[in-house]
Structure formats: structure tokens, C-alpha cells
Amino acid sequence: MRAGRLRRALLAVAVVAAVVVPVSGAARPEIPAPVPRVLAPPTASNLDQVYAANRADAAEAARMARAHGARTRAAADRAMASPSRHFLAFDGRGTGRAVEVIGDLAHADRVAVLVPGSDTTLETYGRFRAGALALHDRLGPRGAVVAWLGYETPGTVSTTVLTATRAEDAAPRLRNFLGRLRGVVGRSAHVSLLCHSYGTVVCGRAAPGLGVSDIVVLGSPGTGASSAAALHTTARVWAARGSADWVAHVPHTSLSLFGTTVGFGTDPVSPSFGARVFQAGAAGHSDYFAPGSESLANLTRIVLGDTSEVTRA
Predict the structure, then answer these.
(1) What distance in Å separates the CA atoms of residue 220 and residue 241, rounded to the nearest whole number?
(2) Low-confidence residues of the chain, pLDDT below 50?
(3) Phi-psi category of 62—alpha, beta or left, where left has phi over 0 and alpha has psi -120 to 50?
(4) pLDDT value at residue 15
């Protein structure tokens, strides 16, 4: 009982802190960008056209951002317009959205879709992409990785990161994307959903009936579900948390405050949740895809279907 009261008190303190601590850049001017063009759904035969169209949008966004004096955004957009980059979607407006393919998506039989957590924007996209690249390097020619920044992520220091509002907006977008992805990879490809931090809340909301082979939650504050069974998915549900991840100290509970539900419930690495918990070594909150790490090795095994080789916690 005392432990429960303490968790609720800590969560209330977190809410107050998120309200009173100023968020840098919250009032920054809007950076102009083109409205994304309307494209046909991607298929294995039209990927090159989809990629080219999104590179063109990124190039135009870079020109508009540069003219606006937004040098950091212009540089990020310009990098995404490189001929070597392959985007299924790009939107330079606001904090930005981008869905990038790494590998040969049309011929991959193992596909990993990565869903990021808080503070992932076009300006910070490079660190998210680095994890996707590291995973693809391990998968080899069989695999493709999709870095799905398909929603407006909350700020780490904000009230939005404590509620499921952004996740509820993102979940139907993720479900729709995964449905369209099947139009490229076919029904036989194994698709794994790898979700980090607040992204695990997004995946929790999207999970019911989702046609993927595996759902992996990393550094999760909670999925919003009380158990793996409550996700209502036929996918294998995996969870991991590194020993240096600060999210272990976040109260894994939920309660009603100020007319909304705050927090995301049961800790996914706890026995009561019922996920397949695996080793993530000494990973910190942003280290799960670090090259050479135990967590990356296990993620690779999960995506490739070598589940008997995953080192369980």
C-alpha cells in the first residue's frame, strides 16, 4: 500500500515538473515546408518513383528552410534529399515526419519497423537513423529496416509525454502504414515491430489484431496495457531494459489527474506483464541499437526468427 502511494506521489511530482519546467523551443516560429504530394500506395514495382518523389519534397523543404534562416532544419532536409536515401513518406512541416527504408524492401523476407520515442524530430532524426543502420548491418541481405517517424513525438520534458494523447493519434497511422507495407513485402514476409520509450505506448495502442510476427518494447514506461495478453495480438511480445536505463526509476503505474489518465501501467519487463524478457546488458535509455551491444544482438535474432538463440533475462 505504501509503495503504491509513493508511486502515485512520484508520478504527480513528474506532472508538476513537466508543467513548470520550460521547454526550450516550444515557442519557436514555424519553419515553412511544402505540403507533401499525394502518391499512389507503394508497391514493389513503384518504389523508385515513391522514393524520388519524397526526395524532391525533401529538397524543396531544404530550400524553404534555408530561405527562412533555419539552417539546422535545412541541413537535415538536404541530407534526406540525397540520391542514396529512400523514403516512403516525408513531411517537412512542423517537427517533421519521415519514413525511411534501409535495405532492399521489395525483396526482403525479414522486415523490422522501428518506432521512436520522445524528442525525435527531423533535426534529431540522425540518432534514430543510426540505430536503424546498425540493425540493418546485422541483418544482412535478407533484411530491411524501416525507420518510422510517422507521428509527432512528445517532448521528454512536457505534459504530453505522460499521457497517451500522442500515441492515440499515432496508432491508426502506424496501423495504416503496416497495412500498406504489406503491399510491398507481400503476406509471407515476417514483419517485426521494434518500439522504443514512448514509442512503446504507440505500439501498445496499435497492437490489437496487428499482422506482425513480433512486437518488441525497449526502455518502456509502460504500454498502456496491464499485460501482454491485454495487447490482444497474436504476435510474440518481447521486452527488455538495460541496467543503465533511467526509465527503471519511472513509476510504472497509471492514475487519473486533472481529468486525464497519467502514466502507462504495468512494467513490461515485470513477470506479471508476461512478455518474453531478454537481456539488454548495460544499455542506457538510448543505447539499445548500439553496435556490438547485447541488446542489438538479441534484436537481430528476433527479427531473423532465431528466437531460440535470444538470451533471456
Answers:
(1) 8
(2) 1-3, 6, 9-10, 12-27
(3) alpha
(4) 42
Sign of the torsion formed by the C-alpha atoms of 299, 303, 308 and 309: negative
* The C-alpha cell that represents 216 in the structure block: 518488441
Q: Judge whether 273 and 227 are in contact, CB under 8 Å.
A: yes
Is 124 buried (19+), middle (13-18) or exposed (0-12) by CB count in 10 A?
Answer: middle
CB atoms within 10 A of CB 278: 24
What's this model's pTM, rounded to 2 decimal places? 0.91
pLDDT digits (tens, 9 = 90+) for 4-45: 554 554 454 444 444 333 333 344 568 999 999 999 999 999
Tell me: the pLDDT tens digits for 151-187?
999 998 888 888 999 999 999 999 999 999 999 999 9
